[in-house]
Design brief:
heterodimer; A: about 475 residues; B: about 500 residues; alpha/beta; about 10% strand
Chain lengths: ~475, ~500
């Protein structure tokens, strides 16, 4: 029997507000333990939460960006459980009445296939603190700095059918969050977390199989491998005549497998109920419209514009708009340069190649968009060749100097004087009679040899178009 | 002159006219506490030094001419209202060593008004109870008869006011916890509209029901103290941004034409003592003779109030009290075992039986599979009870009812019968479920001389009207002039 995987993802994204969701403590990461705390986020007796309006606006941005319906009235609820990193003994979240529901995200797979993934709901909640376990003694400490950091949880419909789709969905969600400027979306640092619900069913059937919830997926790679593993595991269980059991499984990235954490029987009963300390959150149309008006251009729209305005191939537009900062870089550079495609080639090829090799982000690029534009203009105006430009680029990275300065300093200005090039062409033809014979006999591949020789003689400075033209003329 | 026996408004006049100093007044109250409290056991913490220091400041304020209504007035604070630097125990072993680093909003307001804190007073642990017998610290005695309870949960507040160990007190009312002890101790107690007084710094029992209010020697004092603590607070999302009238300045004893609703259900309730019935009947006659109209009204869902309350309040409490886990503050059992053992032992040792009972009840009511049948159903009942009141207030201006079915009962009488104890809240719970204001004003004495209170309930934010009616009643009667005769050994 052929099985089809059914996957739904729950994403937790930390919001980049300056202060926490229910008090005015800073959300800054990396402070000394328990320095960004107050009686409210420490859950001391008698204190009360007050909702941070910016958190609501950020959640509304995500809701609008994913075409969700924003509830005119939503409620906060208490999720009750005991854990030392949860100072109140409950987490303030949303349950029955979340801020937004019924949206979707469009994804494009690597082969160009497009798909729409439904969003079930988006809700706001507070983060918990962190436990720090002493490796030398049986002692644990708790740091409440993170307690009360705002989160939104984005729950997808079970519309995802493969690990790759899960990856594409996650990347798209992260990209939207970053475009909106509401979250760093950093999985390794924990500002972007994902749990996956995975089940399988015979292809062509409707009812869902029993699902397993996968946790501890703290990189894009782990999400995809854990889902792939889980699909295989469930197929094996069913293949062996067994039944998949409802459980929570932890991904063990070192062992490349998942381990059962708890079964259905041990599942927590969170005893949700409306938080009586917070009044219902009322959002009117006026507020929704004011947030909508202030929404930035989103990845999909930007990609469409890149196709239209810069006439880029879809592949280029996809990559360049995958992150807001990359798209910004491209546009900052492209506005100075005549041909957008040359910018796209350089950004996607040389620049991203360098950044990937050095593990840097686009914001950390040693070459600014204006500096790159200066270099590309030198190519467009035939001052240097594309090949020389690579050398200049490397020098720019190394020395931080401007392209023009490097070209002048090193005498790299392209030779476009036809008579000067002609002299070298003649010299090369004279020096290689055997190759000339072979070429004339029909070995067209040798053209490259002659171009190379001319370039070597001119230290790469000869204009390649002129070299080609003259060689073709002379060799007939 | 016994300064501690003064009302707030009388003391204010004497202070203003420099007949007495705040220091003399506060010292008199401290002396009274030191003499009487060993018998009454109302105080958990006596803040003598703070009080004397505040009195000194008050005297300077008075001589500089910047005196306010509460300047130099000694007030007792229920021990679940957070007081910066002063232990706030909630009468629980689990918070016996807890000192908050912040003031409740009502404390900031009292401090700004120049009031003097003389101490923190006893209560049922976490305000769960109707007799103050559930205190994890001590048992407070009714000043009128020391073998009897002062009522609860604000029993310490009521007893301290009745025994002249303060001029006024703050209590909190979740299901009658101000009105019932006020009734049992022969003082005035007001539960304001939910949202009128900030709950910031009030240690939560049941967040959707809790409200801080005054306990005083007469209605005028209640109006003064309520003025001082009322008002919107940005730190409490459930406080309501509406103007607070000057209750004291607007106090009026005109009840002519006032329509007073008499709920037929309350007058057919079983188990109401003859003493209470006749005191309430007499009160009705007093109003009628002054030109008020008595109107029959119906609160058909009142019969479900106890059931609904004892699901909603414990449900909220089970969540509110989860923070006392031994991790951050308060008691921690450091015996052997792991995390779960620490939780279990800390909470088993730290919470008394009634608190544990309510945590269990509430946890059960919120559990998966039971939520709809219990918590949700109770919330629906609550909506119906609110609707009953709204309908009733279309036909009347305020509602008159007993506060408690009987006068103060004997210490130990109900302690082994929690259900019977819960039933004593029958007349007071509805106001909390609906969120409306209610008060208790002395309206008579039992045959054996125990005080009986009359309850007046108003519509939302209409404290003025019930204060006025109570003020009229007080003027027309002299129950509030009678004082308990304490047997001091």
């Amino acid at each position: 029997m052929e099985f089809e995987p059914v996957i739904g993802l729950e994403v937790h994204a930390q919001l980049k507000t300056n202060t926490k969701i229910f008090c005015s403590c800073s959300t800054k990461f990396g402070a000394d333990p328990n320095t960004h705390v107050c009686p409210v986020c420490l859950g001391m007796p008698g204190v009360l939460p007050v909702l941070n309006k910016t958190v609501v606006e950020y959640a509304m941005r995500m809701a609008l960006a994913t075409d969700c319906t924003i509830a005119h009235q939503s409620r906060f609820a208490r999720k009750n459980y005991f854990y030392p990193d949860l100072p109140k003994g409950y987490q303030i979240s949303q349950y029955e009445l979340p801020i937004a529901e019924h949206g979707h995200v469009n994804i494009t797979m690597e082969d160009g296939t497009k798909k729409r993934i439904g969003i079930t709901r988006i809700h706001m909640e507070e983060d918990a603190g962190k436990l720090i376990h002493d490796p030398t003694r049986p002692v644990s400490r708790v740091d409440f700095n993170r307690t009360g950091t705002p989160l939104i949880e984005i729950v997808s419909e079970p519309d995802i059918r493969s690990p790759e789709e899960a990856g594409a969905y996650l990347r798209q969600v992260r990209s939207i969050l970053r475009y909106l400027g509401i979250s760093d979306g950093n999985m390794e640092e924990g500002s972007f977390r994902c749990d996956a619900n995975v089940s399988i069913r015979p292809r062509g059937t409707e009812p869902f199989g029993t699902r397993a919830e996968l946790k501890n997926l703290n990189s894009f790679k782990y999400v995809e491998s854990a889902i792939a593993y889980e699909i295989k595991r469930q197929k094996m269980v069913i293949g062996d005549g067994g039944d998949v059991v409802q459980e929570t499984r932890l991904w063990d990235s070192a062992g490349n497998r998942s381990i059962s954490m708890r079964g259905k029987e041990e599942a927590h009963d969170y005893r949700y109920f409306p938080d009586p300390d917070l009044v219902p959150l009322v959002i009117d149309d006026e507020w929704i419209e004011s947030v909508r008006k202030r929404l930035p251009e989103l990845p999909e729209a930007r990609k469409a514009r890149f196709l239209d305005e810069y006439a880029l191939p879809e592949y280029d537009a996809d990559i360049l708009t995958s992150a807001k900062e990359l798209a910004d870089y491209f546009e900052d550079c492209a506005k100075e340069v005549e041909n957008p495609k040359i910018v796209s080639n350089w950004v996607m090829g040389t620049l991203l190649g360098l950044l990937n090799a050095e593990g840097k982000s686009i914001e950390e690029s040693p070459v600014s968009p204006a500096q790159l534009a200066e270099l590309l203009i030198l190519i467009e105006t035939s001052v240097i060749s594309g090949k020389i430009a690579k050398t200049v680029f490397d020098e720019m990275v190394k020395s931080g100097k401007a392209a023009k300065a490097i070209v002048e300093e090193k005498g790299l200005v392209q030779v476009t004087d036809e008579s000067a090039i002609e002299a070298v062409v003649d010299q090369v033809i004279d020096a290689n009679p055997a190759e000339v014979e072979k070429f004339k006999a029909g070995n067209a591949k040798l053209m490259g040899f002659f171009v190379g020789q001319v370039m070597r003689e001119t230290k790469g400075k000869a204009n390649p178009q002129i070299v080609n033209k003259l060689l073709k003329k002379k060799l007939g | 002159m016994d300064l501690h026996a003064l009302t707030i408004h009388d003391a204010h006049e004497l202070l203003k006219n420099k007949k007495i100093s705040a220091k003399e007044l506060v010292s008199s109250v401290i002396d009274r506490i030191e003499t009487v409290d060993p018998v009454v056991d109302a105080y958990i913490t006596i803040t003598k030094e703070i009080a004397l220091a505040q009195a000194e400041i008050a005297d300077k304020t008075i001589s500089s001419g910047k005196m306010k209504k509460l300047t130099g007035i000694p007030i007792a604070i229920k021990d679940l209202i957070c007081t910066k630097g002063v232990p706030t125990t909630c009468a629980s072993k689990i918070l016996e060593n807890f000192t908050p680093p912040y003031d409740a909003t009502v404390m900031e307001k009292l401090n700004a008004a120049g009031a003097v804190m003389v101490g923190k007073v006893n209560m049922d642990e976490f305000a769960m109870g109707s007799s103050t017998e559930n205190s994890g610290i001590k048992i407070t005695k009714n000043p009128w008869e020391q073998s009897r309870v002062p009522g609860g949960s604000s029993g310490g507040s009521a007893a301290a006011v009745a025994a002249d160990m303060c001029l006024g007190a703050l209590g909190s009312d979740t299901g009658g916890s101000i009105r019932q002890p006020a009734s049992h101790c022969g003082v005035v107690g007001v539960k304001p509209t939910y949202g009128r007084v900030s709950r910031f710094g009030l240690v939560a029992f049941a967040s959707s029901l809790d409200q801080i209010g005054p306990l005083t020697k007469d209605v005028r004092d209640a109006a003064i103290l309520l003025n001082a603590i009322s008002g919107y607070d940005a730190k409490d999302s459930t406080s309501v941004d509406t103007d607070t009238p000057d209750y004291h300045a607007l106090l009026s004893d005109d009840v002519k034409g006032l329509k007073i609703g008499i709920p037929k259900e309350y007058h057919t309730t079983k188990g109401v003592s003859a003493d209470v019935l006749s005191a309430v009947q007499n009160a009705m006659a007093v109003f009628k003779n002054a030109g008020a109209k008595l109107v029959d009204i119906s609160l058909p869902h009142a019969q479900y109030a106890i059931a609904a309350y004892y699901l909603i309040a414990p449900a909220e409490a089970s969540s509110n009290l989860a923070r006392y886990d031994g991790v951050k503050y308060g008691l921690r059992d450091s015996g052997p075992g792991g995390l779960i053992d620490m939780y279990k032992n800390t909470r088993s040792i730290g919470f008394g039986p009634e608190v544990q009972r309510r945590i269990l009840l509430g946890t059960y009511a919120l559990s998966a599979g039971y939520y709809d049948a219990y918590y949700k159903k109770a919330s629906q009942i609550r909506t119906l009870i609110k609707r009953d009141f709204m309908r009733a207030f279309d036909a009347c201006d305020l509602i008159l009812a007993p506060v408690a079915p009987t006068p103060a009962f004997k210490i130990g009488e109900n302690i082994d019968d929690p259900l019977n104890m819960y039933l004593t809240d029958i007349f007071t719970l509805s106001a909390n479920l609906a969120g409306i204001p209610g008060l208790s004003v002395p309206c008579g004495f039992s045959e054996s001389g125990l005080p009986i209170g009359l309850q007046l309930m108003g519509t939302y934010f209409d404290e003025q009207r019930i204060l006025n009616a109570a003020y009229f009643f007080e003027q027309a009667t002299d129950f509030h002039h009678k004082k308990p005769r304490l047997k001091i050994l």
